[in-house]
Amino acid sequence: MPSFLLRRFLSIFPVLLAVLVLSFLLVRIAPGSPFSNERALDPATKLLLEKKYGLSGSLPSQVLHYTGNVLQGDLGDSLKFRGRTVTEIIAQSLPRSLILGSISFCLALGLGIPLGAWAAAQYGKSTDTLLNALALLTLSIPGFVLIPLSILLFSFYFHLFPPAGWGSWNQLLLPSLCLAIPFIGSCARLTRAGLLQTLQSDYIRTARSKGVPESKLVLLHALRPAILPLVAYAGPLAANILTGSLVIEEGFAIPGIGQFFVNGVMNRDVFLVSGTVLIYCLLLLFFNLVTDWLTALLDPRIRLSS
Amino acid sequence: MKNRNKIVGLVLLTLILGASIFGPMISPHGVGELSPQRLAAPSQQNWLGTDLHGRDLLTRLLYGGRISLLVGLVGASISLAVGVTYGLVAGYFGGRLDNAMMRLVDILYALPRIVLVIVLISLFDLKLKSALDDTFLAPLATHARLLLLFVGLGLVEWLTLARIVRAQVLTIKERPFVLSSRLIGQRTSTILFRQILPQILPIIITYLTLALPAVILEESFLSFLGLGVQAPLASWGTLLADGAALLNPMGTPWWLIMFPALALTSTLLLLNLLGDQLKLDKDSR
After folding, report:
1. Do B119 and A273 touch (CB under 8 A)?
2. Interchain contact, B247 vs A163, CB within 8 Å
């Protein structure tokens, strides 16, 4: 692993710690207590409850207590979903979100790259114009707009897919498409721009004049530099899909981590909020690290200069 | 050809903006006006139908457009102000300060900002409300959530602009006119905002047209989740969420879903189109 990647890897930890402390503080400072939205509790019971969960005493001492626990791998108990630890909730819900996200990620790239390459190959023709318009359209339709529309059309009108839930493959298709469609356009545009720029460069002209066949030219010579911007986009793409998943999970009633996060915020469920925010940050920082590594792998200039 | 696209886009956007501003005034229906015709399909009286409480959907859409566009404009302006100032300072002073400031941007880039905004907005709603109540700003207290949305979303989108502006300033600050301003002893703030800022104005305007749809999108995202604009206010996001809540296999009032979706998507599409055109113009120059 190159040293700059190692440095970035190590810099993840202070960031995570800061986010953890910040999210904990935010929820604790905010008005409303995790215990107050049920029947009115008498002060003594409330104090006991707070003591039990380590939420009594001064704020700094609470933060210290909580961070100490997290560093030992204990994310605390959920205050709303009684009897379940935050680790349990995350272990159960995160895989669902990750499956949904990975499928959408593959869909966005798998549909976006060929469409972009096709547009580049047809540069200047009407197919190109049409594909460009399509790309702009898909990236202007928010995923959550597609949710009710697709349920209305494919579940209630054509009866092709179930409108909600989790478990079987046909419950996966609509949500992952809704999540992916806004990003297909951006992938296609990046591919098209990258390919067009590369195909105009000197070394491609040299290769072409040497008589390298067109298909080999594109696949062997042009594609690697052309998809560099796309690789750099993969990190933000993964991040956008992960946060976009919040609303998709809500719309299709998928019990993923997003639903628990939103639930936690609404209920002042302090450990659940901090825990899920921590996981979100960890994942995003990880995606970025992988992106940097891939970029360095593909582009020798970056690799050598650092 | 390019110019015609831009003009058509601008005209359509002006139409949407104008309709949102003046539409509710000339509409025969009040925004919150209830009527016995609940969930009526589009007809001569209610062009786009009515909702669960018999309110006219067209009037509510126009009114919701006000909120959506307002949040977009204010949010984008805030991100503009923050991003430009940040980029100017980092780029102009350079060195260690620049390093530290840009490192912070890198870190924020990698964080799930919308997640943090959700935490911020939904937790501090009440706190801000009570804080405002005690001051002369009390009339604003009912709109505490809206104010938080402005600020929260404004703080999501400034990072890219800060990077772009910084990169520009790095080259501009070495140009002779900036050096001579320094030589004759102009104040740093004058140099930054009077000399350098006008040079990067075209980029800023292009960016504004791209930040606007981004903020509108985020607002409706939050509103769809029920974490954004709260009743009695409505935005395109909440209207769509209201429609989605009525999804029903035994017959869904489709107009409550189709029309908010259409309003939101067409506005985003037009804004993206305009931003694209401006970017193309700039690149080809």
Report:
1. yes
2. yes
